[in-house]
Automatic annotation (TrEMBL):
Pfam families named among the record's database cross-references: ketoacyl-synt (PF00109)
Keyword rRNA processing tagged: no
Protein's GO biological process: fatty acid biosynthetic process; secondary metabolite biosynthetic process
Entry protein name: Ketosynthase family 3 (KS3) domain-containing protein
Ranges where the Ketosynthase family 3 (KS3) domain occurs: 77-241
Keyword Ligase: no
SMART domains per the UniProt record, alphabetical: PKS_KS
Length: 241
């Protein structure tokens, strides 16, 4: 190489130089070295076949684990106390007593597809043809009337309720029952978290079929991210801090 180029960058005392013949970092067709200094550490590599590697972290040794503060350590077991329950499960299960009886008696919640859900005969095929269903049975909430909802308990208008996902309606009722089951009435304004897991988005799929159908409450009525937030808002749960 018959020319030399130098570039230097200084960040709070740290430097990097590139030079065709010399420098802190230089590249040569046959021989080169690279040095990087972090927190009391360095890394060197020789490209001519003779190399030495040393990494220095916080402790000065390559394989020494960093010291983790006690506040960030996760305990092996975290005790959880279930103080109250509310539920809607297939088989007409609506509370803990129903669930206990169902389990003790080895119940089976499997049943035929309700006619008010969809026409199962239009989709059933005993030979598992693509695009069909191989069974006429399933596990359904056949004792829940999704058209009935006590609006007086919540801060929503009729127009908003009309767009409300049935999942949100059931959650609002079940959470209230869980508080009552736990004997907890003084929950508003407290640091209580609301965490919801959801599996399907049937209501959103139905609402999206008509792209011309739009209403002010459509987004917060059908999106799954609203589920936990709806509970927190309606019951004034401030979440863990």
């Amino acid at each position: 190489m018959n020319y030399s180029t130098t570039r230097t960058t200084n960040l709070n005392g740290g430097g990097h130089a590139t030079n065709g013949a010399s420098g802190d970092h230089y590249t040569n067709s046959t021989n080169g070295s690279h040095a990087a200094n972090g927190l009391n550490g360095n890394h060197e590599h020789d490209r001519n076949g003779h190399g030495n590697t040393h990494t220095n972290g916080l402790s000065g040794h390559k394989n020494s684990p960093a010291q983790v503060p006690e506040i960030f350590k996760t305990p092996s077991e975290v005790p959880i106390a279930i103080c109250g329950m509310g539920m809607r499960l297939p088989g007409g299960i609506r509370n803990d007593a129903d669930l206990y009886s169902f389990l003790v008696n080895k119940g089976d919640a499997r049943g035929p597809t309700p006619k008010d859900r969809f026409n199962i005969d239009s989709y059933y095929n005993a030979h598992n043809k693509p695009g069909t269903i191989i069974t006429k049975h399933g596990y359904y909430l056949d004792d829940v009337d999704f058209s009935r909802f006590d609006v007086s308990m919540f801060n929503m208008t009729q127009a908003e309720v009309a767009r409300l996902d049935p999942n949100q309606r059931l959650l609002l009722e079940v959470v209230r029952e869980a508080f009552e089951n736990a004997g907890e009435g003084n929950f508003r304004g407290k640091d209580i978290g609301s965490f919801v897991g959801v599996f399907t988005e049937d209501w959103q799929d139905l609402q999206n079929k008509d792209i011309g159908d739009f209403a002010p409450y459509q987004v917060i009525g059908k999106m799954d991210f609203v589920l936990g937030n709806r509970i927190a808002y309606e019951y004034d749960l401030r979440g863990p801090r």
